[in-house]
Amino acid sequence: MKEIRIEGRKPLEGEIKIQGSKNAALPIMAAALLHKGEIILHQCPDIADVHTMAEIMKKLGVKIQYKNHTMVLDCSHVKETRIDFTEGRKMRSSVILLGSLLGRFQDACIPYPGGCVIGKRPIDLHIWALEKLGVSFFEKESVLVAQRKKLQGTEIVFSGSSVGATQNAVLASVLAEGVTRLKNCACEPEVIWLCDFLCSCGAKITGAGSRTICIRGVEKLHGTEYTIPPDRIVAGTYVCASAITRSQIVLSNAPIEEMEALLCLYQKMGGQYEAIGGKLSLCSRWVQYPIMRQCTEVYPGFPTDLQSPLMAVLSTIPGQSCLVENIFEDRFRTADQLKKMGADIHIKGREAWIRGGTLKGARVEAQELRGGAALVIAGLAAEGVTYIENPQYIERGYEDICQDLKMLGAAIEIE
Ligand code: UD1
Question: Are the CB atoms for 229 and 23 separated by under 8 Å?
Answer without folding.
Answer: no
